[in-house]
Amino acid sequence: xxxxxxxxxxxxxxxxxxxxxxxxxxxxxxxxxxxxxxxxxxxxxxxxxxxxxxxxxxxxxxxxxxxxxxxxxxxxxxxxxxxxxxxxxxxxxxxxxxxxxxx
Length: 103
Ligand SMILES: [Zn+2]
Ligand SMILES: [Zn+2]
Hints:
This protein has strands at residues 18-28, 39-44, 51-52, 59-60, 69-79, 86-97. By secondary structure, it is mainly beta. The chain has one domain (18-97). A hairpin with a 6-residue loop joins β3 (51-52) and β4 (59-60).
């Protein structure tokens, strides 16, 4: 883990650690036209009920178990006390992974 913020260089261990959680959803939307279909990672502040494909607008629900949602990760970030950026990943918890290890 980095001791310095990669954005502003502040020492992130000097102050009491600031953590922030967020969710990452790895999707592969089957409603997108085959030529444009791609893997996408959507970031959300917390668990959500549904996701919208940013390419075609299709709604994937429920987000936690839809067949096009391949990966769900709960992320814990280290937040820089100086600039407020998420400067490192503290922990990753995989809640779902049906991608076969591709995401
Ligand atoms: Zn789509
Ligand atoms: Zn910083």
